[in-house]
């Protein structure tokens, strides 16, 4: 077969497949060729430039920004959601929560143990947007204790709701997130019920977390179970920019409190770093430094973030 004859056949096959919408098996039958030959010709069409495939994303989808974040920070996946430049925090939470719900519905596999950092309005928006799934997970485990008088109730509802959607058991963490002292944390962590849940953190397959700023949200300020001004000054002096499960890190992602100083009961930063998949839901340009610190610390594999904040992270 001459070069021209070969090219003519390649173009014929490509036209039938890409323009005519024919299946490879039908093309093979129609042209009296083997299906493997048709498949090889289609691959050659792409390799030799006979066929060029263009992806034309809608204006509210940002593959270049997502790819930029993935390359810059070495993460598995970035999902960038479209919000207005002047979007309210509630609008950002809703957009990220909706995208996270879709991600979870396509990502969770049977027998996954799913961890959830339950004290987060964005995670709550994700759970609100979820639908019951056909798969059965191994369990849903609460990764952070409650916050304030209603914290345990809200954490319980959120964890149990997600477990119901995934047709699995809920593992609740019967503790406040921040104890009065490190000694109190150690005493409580030795309790059988708490220790049983904490011991399972190392088994988590997918962890869903928020990223907090050094300056606590009004929700946390009003909770009655948060760091006092003295501890906040210590965190600031040590360069803390944000937290995951209320464990704080600096701009380079390094923890700012030693274990002997940290009264928090929740998944540790070191555990997040080795967890197979940590999905962070975080948005708002005021959180850019906190998100960047979490990325630099390699605590997360998947980031779901709003477009204005994503652009800030690429600067």
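-> sequence recovered:
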């Amino acid at each position: 077969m001459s070069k021209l004859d070969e090219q003519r056949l390649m173009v014929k096959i490509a036209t039938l497949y890409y323009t005519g919408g024919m299946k490879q098996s039908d093309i093979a039958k129609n042209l009296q060729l083997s299906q493997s030959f048709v498949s090889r010709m289609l691959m050659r069409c792409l390799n030799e430039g006979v066929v060029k495939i263009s992806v034309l994303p809608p204006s509210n989808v940002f593959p270049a920004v997502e790819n930029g974040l993935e390359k810059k920070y070495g993460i598995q996946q970035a999902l960038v959601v479209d919000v207005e430049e002047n979007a309210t925090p509630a609008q950002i939470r809703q957009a990220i929560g909706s995208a996270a719900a879709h991600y979870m519905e396509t990502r969770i596999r049977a027998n996954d143990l799913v961890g959830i950092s339950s004290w987060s309005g964005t995670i709550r928006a994700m759970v609100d947007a979820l639908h019951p799934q056909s798969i059965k997970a191994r369990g849903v485990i609460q990764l952070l204790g409650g916050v304030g008088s209603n914290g345990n109730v809200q954490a319980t509802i959120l964890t149990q709701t997600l477990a119901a959607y995934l047709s699995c058991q809920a593992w609740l963490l019967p503790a406040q997130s921040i104890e009065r002292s490190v000694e109190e944390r150690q005493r409580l962590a030795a309790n059988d019920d708490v220790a049983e849940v904490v011991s399972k953190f190392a088994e988590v397959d997918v962890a869903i977390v928020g990223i907090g700023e050094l300056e606590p949200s009004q929700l946390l300020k009003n909770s009655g179970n948060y760091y006092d001004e003295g501890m906040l000054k210590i965190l600031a002096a040590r360069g803390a920019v944000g937290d995951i499960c209320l464990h704080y890190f600096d701009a380079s992602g390094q923890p700012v409190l030693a274990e002997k100083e940290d009264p928090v009961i929740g998944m540790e930063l070191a555990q997040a770093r080795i967890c197979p998949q940590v999905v962070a839901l975080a948005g708002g340009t005021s959180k850019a430094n906190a998100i960047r610190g979490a990325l630099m610390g390699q605590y997360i594999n998947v980031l779901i973030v709003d477009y204005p904040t994503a652009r800030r992270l690429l600067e």
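The first strand starts at residue 77 and ends at 81.
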